[in-house]
Amino acid sequence: MKFNYNLNLDDYLNYQLFNASQTKSIIKKRKRNRFIPAIFFVVLGIVPRFDFTETFTLIYIFIGILWIFVYPIWDKRWYFNYYKKYIKENYVYNFDKDTEVIITMDEILMKNENSESRISLAELKEINEIPLAFYLKLKSSQSIILPKNKMSDLKEFREILDTIKNKYSINYNEFPQWKWQ
To answer: Which CA distances in Å does 139 have to 109, 121, 144, 161?
Structure first.
């Protein structure tokens, strides 16, 4: 199969956010940062002190509970803005470069005006599909981003991926409802 595409800021951003949502250390950090400060404020509110008043107790408990609900909104925006800035600084020269991709039963050939890459399909570790794209993750932890909206025949592409998945025993993960949260 052969097709042409180019990547823009949104393509890179979706990949980074998807990758963050699947990384165990980031998942753990986000949960920890949501609950530990909340617990701290609640405990601070209930622990008797010399200036202990019912008003302070209620304020600290309210802050702890509010944190649990407000933090995810802030955290979601923080990661979004962080990755957006990171991509603008590091991938700006990759935006909108026409790339030709040829997928055979043995390799993926990618060509653009500056380079040419041949990647053996034996180097694929997993294939991830989200509503907007396919991410072909290599054993080197790099990924190939293939946006769905830039493919001419999505059905044929899925059939090729299914054949590759079976031939090379590659994990194929579908995330049909994925969105950044």
So the answer is: 17, 10, 12, 17
Q: Which residues have C-beta within 8 Å of that of residue 24, sequence separation ≥ 6? A: none
Beta strands in the chain (DSSP E): 2-5, 99-103, 107-111, 116-120, 124-129, 133-138, 143-147, 171-174
- For the whole model, what pTM was predicted? 0.88
- φ/ψ of 91, rounded to 5, equals -120, 10
Asked if 138 and 126 touch (Cβ cutoff 8 Å), the reply is no
Q: What is the pLDDT of residues 105-120, one digit of tens each?
A: 899 999 988 889 999 9
- For residue 99, the SS3 value is strand
- Asked if residue 1 lies in contact with residue 157, where contact means CB atoms within 8 angstroms, the answer is yes
Q: How far apart are CA 177 and CA 148, in angstroms?
A: 15
